[in-house]
Design brief:
The longest helix has 12 residues, at 197-208. The chain has one domain (8-208): Aldolase class I (TIM Barrel). It contains eleven helices and nine strands. Strands 5-4-3-2-1-9 form a six-stranded parallel β-sheet. A three-stranded parallel β-sheet has the order 6-7-8. Helix content is 43%, strand content 15%. β1 (17-21), α2 (29-39) and β2 form a beta-alpha-beta unit. The chain is an alpha/beta fold.
């Protein structure tokens, strides 16, 4: 599984899907991480959309070392420091201003900045970022956009996220410039609210099988 010598691209190749998780109660985070790892999805993006997010990242980092916990929805320099201190392995942003990109270059952990256009992707590549989040994927052109940019931007890899579900994931994963996809369907809100880890494990195992289908 994850090791100290791994970089961002290595993390993105560990599994076909990165569950994008919004945690409202950090107490479920350890069991959730164990469940996702066991099902074959060791990379977990915890979004900074709730007060419980930092505690969840810290809990997973300490108690589930075989997981690779990423901090998502990072929007400021203060959050960069907070998630690094909490134990996140890498940072994910939904979009990236020049100021934020400059701060991410100085971060102590890798970052996968978000982009939605070719110009944004080129700007981030010029700044040294070559693994990018494509968000919101479906609204921004989907698999057709990614297929179109592979020719002019052959050195970039993407993790498309936003609107992707089980039915559409394979069309993204078949593309040469897609390392993995991000999705919320693996940890649906209803299952998270009730703590239904059996359902989450079923969905995660199914998602983990996607790589073998492409």
């Amino acid at each position: 599984m994850a090791s100290e010598g791994m970089g961002l691209r290595d993390y993105l190749r560990l599994a076909p899907v990165i569950p994008v998780v919004t945690v409202t109660d950090a107490r479920i985070s350890i069991d959730l991480a164990h469940t996702l790892v066991r099902a074959g999805l060791p990379v977990i993006e915890v979004t900074l959309r709730t007060p419980a997010a930092l505690d969840a990242i810290s809990a997973i980092a300490k108690a589930v070392p075989e997981a690779v916990v990423a901090a998502g929805t990072v929007l400021s320099s203060s959050q960069i420091a907070e998630v690094a201190d909490a134990g996140a392995k890498f940072i994910v942003t939904p979009g990236t201003s020049l100021k934020l990109a400059e701060e991410l270059r100085e971060a102590s952990i890798p970052a996968m900045p978000g982009c939605a256009t070719v110009s944004e992707a080129v700007t981030l590549a010029e700044m040294g970022f070559h693994a990018l989040k494509f968000f919101p994927a479906v609204a921004s052109g989907g698999a057709a956009w990614l297929k179109s940019v592979h020719g002019p931007l052959p050195n970039l890899v993407f993790c498309p996220t936003g609107g992707i579900d089980r039915a559409s994931a394979a069309s993204y994963l078949s593309l040469p410039n897609v390392a993995c996809v991000g999705g919320t369907w693996v940890t649906p809100a209803a299952a998270m609210k009730t703590g239904d880890l059996v359902e989450i494990e079923r969905l995660a195992a199914d998602a983990a099988s996607l790589r073998r289908e492409t």
